[in-house]
Design goal:
single chain, 496 residues, alpha+beta, 9 strands, 51% helix, 8% strand, disordered N terminus
């Protein structure tokens, strides 16, 4: 059945492509734009799609070596600008920031994005600005981050307690960090953790983990309809069963969270003006829904929840940091000495210690630079014609920033392939500038950068402080580690 569907899909693809070539692709390709960026030779209909191999950031880097750090592609009907230099990035996100503040409307992603209402994919405009304002004040402000420090500390300690109980046993670290970050986000969103089990590898938690991770996975790869609009209906008929299933389960999960908090809010005896620290994100949004029902609909509330729960940036970055430190014992010991000097061995570190553990932050930055976590920042789209790098960029051009190429550029970083956290010591107190943009830049930069850095630093620092690490064999390419409690911290861990 799958083979027949694939054959039918190919027939539709070529038939409709040939039929509509002159109607869609040919006119758009003949629009008179002078001084376009360099571009490889392209073939009819497909444009440059045939040049894109996996991993995509490597393929784009190879093209930039040949055509320059600012070059132009046609992916089907879609014009694309690819950049990977600080000057071009600065130009796009300062001088042309408003022009590139939009997101392209990609059908394969929009089906999971609550009809473009989410903070990540909403078009630039009043709706997005309202979402951004709410996120900046109620989720990611310094006041809110400080108010939720207890949540992060409790969950990191809960993780340390579980690892202490599982001492001398191999732990699959990516799953471990997903449990941690998802529980933290859930407590911020709804006031309760999701995974309650005492064992990281219990059958119950493993089943829950697989189900939740599938529901809140990163959106799927781009589909043919993203590049050929007339094939959208074919994609809808033949390629979106899984997407629809995931969207339905995700929507039901978030609606259940909202309904549960709504019932609690209605039955609560706590006055509305009670302690702000006791109010979770849904509680705050439900209060705003009462005063601004036309904006804070359940759909908007779900879109905001989704931003916090979708994705695995922190978990994947933490896994990469653990992998790097196991392979670099000198850097591990340097980080431990810093923590012991500033925190001691009679208590666990907390948020207040992070500002004094600067080498720990260097490790996080170096992991973000060198690791494969964010090879391409979320794509942008130009709302009108502009100039980048001295070249004309047409209106409606998709912008791809190859952060992997930027962060591994030998002209910007000495020994770029080597794990050297101390390289960030030299920029202490200074802006690294546009040569280091793991969270993007400009208006659409990730608003959760500060929260993510604190979460990752506290989790990583606590594991360094409390445990000696020993790498286990990789199982299905998943990193496994044995965490052995330090003798100096045994009493502290025992009392958790």
């Amino acid at each position: 059945m799958e083979i027949m569907q694939a054959l039918l899909y190919v027939v539709f693809l070529y038939s409709f492509s040939l039929f509509f070539y002159k109607l869609i692709i040919f006119p758009s390709s003949r629009v008179q734009h002078k001084n376009l960026p360099p571009s490889p030779p392209r073939i009819p209909i497909l444009g440059h799609l045939h040049l894109l191999k996996k991993p995509l950031h490597h393929a784009l880097h190879n093209l930039s070596n040949k055509y320059g750090s600012v070059f132009f592609l046609w992916l089907g009907w879609r014009p694309v600008l690819v950049i990977s230099t600080p000057s071009a990035i600065e130009e796009c996100f300062t001088k042309n920031d408003i022009i590139f503040a939009n997101r392209p409307s990609l059908p394969s992603i929009m089906r999971l994005e609550n009809d473009s209402r989410s903070l990540v994919m909403a078009p630039y405009g009043t709706h997005w600005r309202n979402l951004r304002r709410f996120a900046a004040i109620e989720i990611f402000s310094s006041v809110r981050i400080q108010m939720t420090s207890r949540i992060r500390a409790d969950e990191v300690r809960f993780l340390a307690k579980k690892l202490f109980a599982m001492r001398n046993r191999k732990v699959e670290v990516n799953s471990m960090f997903f449990f941690l970050t998802f529980n933290i986000m859930m407590k911020m969103v709804s006031g309760r953790r999701y995974f309650e089990g005492d064992e990281l590898d219990s059958e119950k938690e493993r089943n829950e983990f697989n189900d939740i991770r599938e529901i809140f996975s990163v959106p799927p790869s781009l589909a043919a309809g993203d590049f050929f609009p007339f094939l959208n209906f074919v994609s809808s008929l033949m390629g979106n069963a899984k997407i629809k299933r995931l969207h339905k389960k995700r929507d039901e999960f978030m609606q259940n969270l909202i309904d549960t908090q709504r019932r609690k809010k209605r039955s609560s005896s706590v006055p509305e003006e009670g302690d702000e620290k006791t109010k979770n994100i849904i509680h705050v949004m439900l209060s705003l829904q009462e005063s601004e029902p036309e904006f804070y609909t359940d759909g908007v509330i779900k879109a905001i929840i989704q931003v916090m729960l979708v994705g695995e940036l922190s978990a994947t970055t933490l896994e990469a940091a653990v992998s790097f430190l196991i392979s670099h014992p000198n850097e591990f010991n340097k980080a431990r000495d810093e923590i012991d000097s500033n925190v001691g061995q009679f208590r666990l570190m907390d948020d207040g210690d992070l500002s004094r553990c600067k080498y720990l932050r260097c490790i996080i930055n170096e992991t973000l630079r060198l690791g494969p976590t964010i090879p391409l920042i979320p794509i942008h789209e130009s709302s009108r014609e502009c100039v980048v790098g001295g070249f004309n960029v047409p209106c409606g051009t998709t912008l791809i920033v190859n952060t992997w190429a930027l962060h591994n550029d030998p002209s910007l970083w000495a020994d770029p392939t080597i794990f050297k956290p101390e390289r960030f010591d030299s920029v202490e107190g200074e802006r690294v500038g546009f040569k280091f943009v793991p969270f993007g830049s400009g208006r659409r930069a990730c608003p959760g950068e500060s929260l993510a850095i604190r979460l990752m630093a506290l989790a990583l620092g606590t594991l360094i402080q409390c445990f000696d690490w020993e790498k286990g064999e990789e199982k299905e390419k998943l990193l496994q580690v044995v965490f052995r409690p330090r003798k100096a911290l045994m009493d502290t861990l025992f009392d958790l």
